[in-house]
Amino acid sequence: MRTVTRHSERHRVARIGWLRAAVLGANDGIVSTASLIVGVAAASPAGSEVLVAGIAGLVAGAMSMAAGEYVSVSSQADTERADLGRERAELASQPALERAELAQIYVRRGLDPVLARTVAEQLMARDALGAHARDELGISDMTTARPLQAALTSAATFSLGAALPLAMVVVSPAALLVPVVSAASLVFLAVLGAVGAQTGGAAVARAVIRVSFWGALAMALTAGIGALVGTAV
């Protein structure tokens, strides 16, 4: 008796929607809040002013991330719905042309014309709109736009990311506020890059270097501008 071996695979593409929003939110929370804290501290070292600025940045940033993600992903969802609506109408009015179009897609992917037409006919007999959405439009259940999920994920992870450098303000001596917040934030960014890469199955070292570089650049520029403004004022 022949034994059938089951081939198990673990793919990460289903995580794209929420993972992108989560990494973006946490990264932006750390970078923007740490940069704001460093900039204000460079201009005015008073601890209370820095803390107020950081808290305001956290609240404003979280709301901005939620609104921005919801609006942008809603636009994507609207486009997807419009394309599906047009495809549904074309399937109803000209099914033969749509079948030929789907078969031609499979021919371009490497199937011979006869097999491509058979595959197109069988897929359309089962779920015509689903076949065209997936293979013609590139829309699937795993990658479809989810505005509310993106908004809530971004707001929550932004708040979490922003809370980390903000906590450093509370525990840091006033004289060491800038170096402590900067160093700790770079560590937070490195950890975030590693976790995000691990979750998505990507290269950890590249992600860590990428987020750390841009975070260091943002904080350095903000600290420089804050020092110049503080001196001028």
Layout of secondary structure:
Elements: H1 16-43, H2 47-93, H3 95-108, H4 113-135, H5 147-171, H6 177-200, H7 204-232
Helix pairs in contact: 1-2, 1-5, 1-6, 1-7, 2-3, 2-4, 2-5, 3-4, 5-6, 6-7
Could you list some keywords that capture this structure?
233 residues; mainly alpha; elongated
In short:
It is built from seven helices and no strands. The protein has 233 residues and is mainly α.
Biggest sheet layout: none
- Topology pattern, helix = H, strand = E: HHHHHHH
Number of domains: 1
| Strand composition percent | under 5%
Portion in helices: over 70%
Terminal CA distance reads 86 Å
Shape: elongated
* Helix/strand class: mainly alpha
Round the Cα radius of gyration to an integer and report it: 25 Å
Rounded average pLDDT: 83
DSSP summary, beta strand count: 0
Low-confidence stretches: none
Number of helical segments with 4 or more residues: 7
Structural commentary:
With 233 residues, the protein is an all-alpha fold. It has 7 helices and no strands. The longest helix is centred in the N-terminal third of the chain and has 47 residues, at 47-93. The chain starts with 15 loop residues before the first helix and ends with a helix. The chain has one domain.
